[in-house]
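HUMAN: Would you supply a protein with fold tokens?

ASSISTANT:
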Amino acid sequence: MAPANDPRARRALPLLLTAALAWLPLPAAAQSLGFGAPGEQTPVEVLADNGIEWMRDGKRFVAHGNASATRGETTVYADTLTAHYREGKTGKSELWRLDAQGHVRIASPTETASGDVAVYDIGSAVLVLRGEPVAKLVTPDTVVTARDELEYWDAKRFAVARGDAVVVRDGRTLKADIVTAYFAPKSAQKPQKGKAKGGDIDAVDAHGHVTITSKTEVATGDRGRYNVKTGIATLLDNVTLTRGGDTLNGAYAVVNMNTGVSTLYSQVPGAKTDKPKPVRGKFIPKKAEPLPEERGARKP
């Protein structure tokens, strides 16, 4: 093998890794960040500027320096990539985990994710990403960030953002301690013009210090759910709605982000409370806008 600093190393890596990993049962291609389910005989092409180590005893490959691993239409980029393999149930070797460190970016035709460290468990189809200052997931219409950790569950079609989680979509921002975004089934997603289908988010659940901000209103609560299709957000427990200087306080709210109509209730539906606290409102009178003639409109 060429030395790590030999320019020939990078040219040799695609052939070396493709040959070495072609016989590993790898997952099929998919229009997402996931690597799919194990069992497919799909080769992986790995590139690295500073060479690669093949540790047979440790059953892993380590690619150093501006490394990338491509399978199908999904590519993982990082300073260092480590591929772990093991003996499968059929007696053949299988790739079961991929680690990425430093300037991590994972890209597919419909989604991208970025951070500092990533671990992808191929068997369970779960990607765990950590970043500094945040880990980020970008779909065609939504951006999700997390301070502590971002989990991407490809097979189960959801992502979990932990720690100062933020979801930005259509000019609206949802913040919470923990956010779970549910993707639409791949069969139900409609491709955008010039793009493959995928990445559509159906609903978002939020827990802890929830804040939903639109152009005209701010809604807060302890937990909530936003239905992307209907544009309706529901908030539960210690709910406050603020619009301008006006505020409403209650236990449960239904906020229609599309129409701007919000309804606040004294208790959560189905809750058994003998004496629920009444909904409270504080409204600041506003001076009416003067009519044109009152503003000194010109007379003919």
